[in-house]
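[Solved] Which block belongs to which protein?

Original post:
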Amino acid sequence: MISLLVGSKGTGKTKKIIKLANEEVKSAKGNIIFVDDDKRHIYDLKHSVRFISMDEYPIYNINEFFGFLCGIISNDYDINKIYIDGLLKVMKTDFDEIPKLIRKLENVSTKYEIDFFMTISCVKEQLHEDLHKYLV
């Protein structure tokens, strides 16, 4: 399953995604990954959530980011959910590239039964129309 939470900067998306990840720990059947663009929120997450700060890795486009996620998944078959805060920041791209990534993630999500929950700083109208079905 793919879920997108969108909103303008400063509307509380990060707080919501952190809360969701922390609540998921209580009932998770597998491991939880939280990907962010820096380490600001590392201490806001419960210890059992695997935190990954993208500022430590040279990722510059969607193909590199997708490969990075596949590497994480291939290393841990027990991943149940992957939370990505600030999708445009963590993979350093623009809106036009998001549908390509989502299509790839849909296949991974189905094959490995992993849920992806991502935030994007934008308003709904900025998103490609094909992505509206993923909005929460």
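(Second protein starts here: sequence line, then its structure tokens.)
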Amino acid sequence: MNITVIGAGYVGLVTSACFAELGNQVTCIDVNKQKIANLKKGILPIYEPGLESMVISNLNNKRLHFATSLKDSGAEPQVIFIAVGTPSDKDGSADMQFVLEAARNIGSYIKHYCVVVDKSTVPVGVADQVEEIIKTELKKRKLKIKFDIVSNPEFLREGAAIDDFMQPDRIIVGLNSKNAKNIMLELYKPILRNPERIYFMNIKDAEMTKYVANAMLATKISFMNEMSVLCDRMGVDVDNVRIGIGADSRIGNSFIYPGCGYGGSCFPKDVKALIKMAENHDVNPYVLRAVEERNHHQKHVLPEKIFKIFGEDLSDIKIGVWGLSFKPGTDDMREASSLVLLEKLLTHNAKVQAYDPVAMPVAREMLPKDWFKSGKLHLSDHQYEAVKDVDALVLVTEWKSFCYPDLSVMKKLMKRHIILDGRNQYDPQQIKDAEFEYYGIGRE
């Protein structure tokens, strides 16, 4: 098929590369001229395992193309995906300006029947707005071109996006057209080993499904994080509790690992947007507000543990930090727990040596320049350089390279032998046997 994807961000780029890998002709559109110029050279704006090689391969095989507008692309797509950003607005609602602008561009460009697919995460009812905008633009052109609107939300995990796309556990498709259904089935047929895993429903149902799915996962995380705080106070090892409840098939093991808070581009903004949707329909979102509040407090757990150990004046304290991205497998630092930790440590006059295997370039661009100029924050070139002469090490992101640290080397490098494990990655007894102090989340 001939496919156009509007948006060369995380979702748009993964979608474009994967559909090209399946043999389609794909054109990816983005208004950022520098980004498109770099992508044409195989230079990616994000880190995602396996994505760079896939983009370069499909560029070389002339299945993947990049352009700055629909008109410049010269493509005549059968399917157009809208995969632009929907960031949180000031009131917490999802900002739809990029989605609606994409709809205007589609209406001013299409020449024949096509399926327009909302891949972006959009509130319930946005597909109707997209449809009306396209109709309005076609009317301006005095054209009567048929098109169908589809909601096909993404469920891509950063760090595992290609596997999630190529081997999905489910595909959600909202539509009201038999023709669009046939096209979507044809489009996804190469990766649908189990046809029962594509779920067709109404458009609004599909829009809502995306938000509810992310909110449910965020709720599981926040619930377990709250239990970890209670376990801390009561002398209970939350990891044993996690194992016990995870054995219940009704609960399962996914998303019940306590830690120092969730972040990224999806959960925070989607919970906020669902709260706003509830409020707009006179529903009091008690549970969702609690999820958001718990996550806010959870990001302060590690700083509070540090203050408990060293006091609130950290003028003579040096802290090593392992991990800056919000999760392993990505360089994304949006809403990352590391941001709260760094801000708290530096405002209390600590010196910080931080290391992340992937997110260092993003950190240099994203973090306040004053933190570097003051000399309080140093980004280390190696994970063990980050622990040299520190009073404590804080694990924030559970990268695989941090799983089995050389404790004998660390013992020689560190000034004081204290480890704060923000993801409960380590065996507390093993750390204590190596003569380190260990502080986890809900397992002191």
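Accepted answer:
You had them paired correctly. Confirming on the second one: The mean pLDDT is 96.
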